[in-house]
Amino acid sequence: MHARTTLWLKNKATGCFVQRYGSRFVFSGTSALSGRKTDMSQGQGQDPTGQDQDQVTGMVCLESDLQDGQMKEVEVDEQKILLVRTQGLYSAVGSKCSHYGAPLIKGALVGDRVRCPFHGACFNIKTGDIEEYPGLDCLPSYKVKVEDGKVYVSVNKKSLKLYKRVKDMSCRVSGVRHTILLIGGGPASLLCAETLRQNRYEGRIVMVTRDTLPPIDKPKLSKAMHLESVSLLLRPTDFFQQHDIELWMQKEAVSVNPVEKTVKLNDGSLHYYDQLLISTGCRARPLSCPGSELEGVRILQSYEDAKEIHQSCVGKKAVVVGASFIGMEVASYLADKAASVAMVGNGSYPFERSLGPEIGKMTMQMLEESKVKFYMNDGVVEIIGENGKVKEVVLKSGAVVETDVVIAGIGVIPNSDFLKESQVEVDSRKAVIVDKFMRTNIPNVFGAGDVTSFPLTIRKDQRVNIGHWQLASAHGRVAALNMLQKQIKIDSVPFFWTVLLGKSVRYTGYGEGYTEIIFKGKVEERKFLAFYIKDDQVVAAASLMFDPAVARLAEMMSNGLVITKAQAQSDDLSWLQM
Questions:
Q1: Cis bond leading into 214, ω under 30°?
Q2: pLDDT tens per residue across span 19-32
Q3: Can you spell out the DSSP letters for 214-229?
Q4: Which of 95, 155, 308, 556 would staple 80 via disulfide (CB 3.0–4.6 Å)?
Q5: 286-410: same fold as 55-159?
C-alpha cells in the first residue's frame, strides 16, 4: 500500500485552489498547513501553501513511519518515489534503477546508498548520483520537508514520469588543443568520455571503434539475439554530437607510438593524442579443429553475429561448443527456437569452476527440461561439411551430432596485438597491465575494461583480469578522473549476472581458488544463496531467487567488511540485514 497523497491543484475557471485527498477534491480558500485564509495576491506561481506551481507537493507519510536505515516506496501525483531515512534525515530519489528499471525498494540500503537487487548498480540516496554500475544515468532527486510530524515530497512537474537523469556535461571549447583518444567502443570508453565531459573537460575527445554501431548493451546479445540495433544503443547518435564526442566507427588501431604520441589506424591514417585510453576489450576465441572454416560455424562477438545466429538457427539444428556463460545463454535463448540444441562442454557440469558443481548441475537440468541435450566431459575433434556447409560434429567420445549451425563459446582473447611495438606492458595472457589508477607503465596511456589486468581491492590487490560489464564501466570512469589528475583508485566489487530461461543467477566478489561452498536454501529447489569460502572468509556469493542478498553482500564487501565462514554457516542471517 502506498501512502495517500495530498495535492494542491488550481481550478482554472474559479482561480481557487483544490485540495485532493486520493480521489476526492475539496475546494478551499484556506491553507491546509497554516489554517490561515489564503492571500491570492501573495505572488504569481505560488499556491496557498507558498509552493511553486511548477512543483507538485504531497504528504507521503508520517515522520514516525520510518526508522533510520529504512526505505519506503511512496507516490506523488502517481509518480513512484523512493523515500529513505538515514541518520534522522529524510531524502527522496527515483524509485527505479536507471539500468533496466528494477524497483530499488527491493534493493539493499547501506549507509548513504542503495544498490539495485538485480544487477548491482548503486545510487547515492541524497543526490541520486550513480556511484556503481551497470547503467549510465543518475536518479532524479526530490525536495523533502518535514513539518508537524508529516513528511512532504515535492516533484517538479517537468520531471514527472522520468525515472532517470543525465548528468550535466560540458562541450569542447574552441581553441583548446588537448586531445584524448579512446581506442574501443564499449562501456569503458563511453564512461570515460562521459566522465570527462561531466568534469568539464573542454578538449577534444575521439572514440575509435571497429564496430558498425555506437556503443551497445552487449550483455543482451547472448540473452535476446533477435533485438533490433536501435533498442541496444546505450546512447543515441545525436548524444555524441551534442557533447562533442567524435565517434569514428569501423576503424581499428594497428599500432601505437608512445614516443611520438600517435596511433595508426587500419586505414593508414596517423592520429596524435595527449592522453590515450586502451579499452579494446576481448575477442571470442574461434574453434581451431578441422572444418572450423565451414559455413555455419559462428562466434558471438557483435550485433551482426547475434542477428546471424538467430536467423540461421530458427527451425534448424544447433550445436553450442563451450558450456560457458555465453554458451549457456545462447543455448537457453535457442531452446524454443531451434529444431534441436546440443551443448558440448569439457567439464562435468557447466560453470563448474566458477559456481561449483551443484549450481552447474542445476543449470544443466534447467536446460535439459527445455530439450537441450548435453555432451559433457567431451569436445569437438572435427566438423564435417557437405557442399561447404556444416553437416555433422564429431566428438572426442566418438559421438556424431547432426547440425546446421555450430556456435563457439570457448573463451576470449585480449585485443592487445596492436601494442606489440609500443612498450606497453602486458601479462602472460596479453592483458594490459594497469595500476589502481588505471595507468599503464607508459605516461599518459591508460587502460580499462576486459583488456586489462588490474589490482582487485577485495583480494588485497591481487592482479586479475575480469570480463564483467560493470567493472568495465567503473574502469572507464576511474581512468577519466585520473586523466584529470583526480587521483581516484579503482575499488569496485565485481558484480555479475547470467540469465537462463528467464531465471537470473547473481554473483558478487571473486571466488577463484575457493575451497568450500556453504548453501542457504536448496539448489535443487532453485532458490538458494551460496557463500564461497577461502581462508575461512567469504570471498564471493551467488544466488537465485534470494534477492537482495547478493546486492547486500556486495555493499558489505565494498565497505571493507570481512564476512567469516562462521557467519555463513550460522542459521541466523540477521547480520545480512544490517
A1: no
A2: 433 333 333 333 33
A3: SSB-GGGTTT-TT--G
A4: 95
A5: no
